[in-house]
Amino acid sequence: MSTSSVSETNACWSCGSATGGAHFCPACGKIQPLPRGMDFFAFFGLPQKLWMEMGALEQKFHALSWKLHPDNFVRASEDERQLSLERSSQLNDAYRTLQDPVGRVEYLLAQAGMRKEGQTKQQAPPELLEEVFELNESLEELRGARGSQTNGDELAALKERLQEAQHGFEAKLRQVDAQLQDIAREWDAALDASAGDAERRALMERMNAILNRRSYIRNLVNNVQKELAQ
Length: 230
Description:
Elements: H1 3-9, H2 40-43, H3 54-68, H4 78-98, H5 101-111, H6 129-146, H7 152-192, H8 197-229
Helix pairs in contact: 3-4, 5-8, 6-7, 7-8
């Protein structure tokens, strides 16, 4: 059995019937290779929508986990056991990604080639430049205070100022998440309306900009948390 060739044709390796990308052949019931280009949404038989009912997703996950588990293939051929391992691994990856609202958006954009590893360093959003500058100044002051003879009261005041800044950026992060939820609803509505490529691309670009802003603010919050934890 050649898993690479059958994954291109979507024909059952055992009986030759069309599988339509199903996990198991509808005709003979044999486990099938992963079809070329199958994404995490299709793995669960779902459209590329960003709002999901988590209970239904979990039920699909547990049902597929039981069917694809390697223990069910101990007496099968070596190729079938390998297919079970491959499908089970992708099942776990797909579930881990799709159960996270932000992860779903990031994955959708990655599939479209809009989010890649090693992207250029993000710049501070223009409206946050002043706050970011003040935050970096406070961080430098705190680092300098640790290496000097700064008394406890001054050190506590510096930490309190940083905590206030942290809370402010956490509030901004919640606002960004709300924006991401709103545009996720727009995306789903566009799919329901069979929107064209241009409209879908425009929505993806907006989502990408929001994710970049979210990533930048989240990194700021993480940096403050690390400094305060020292």
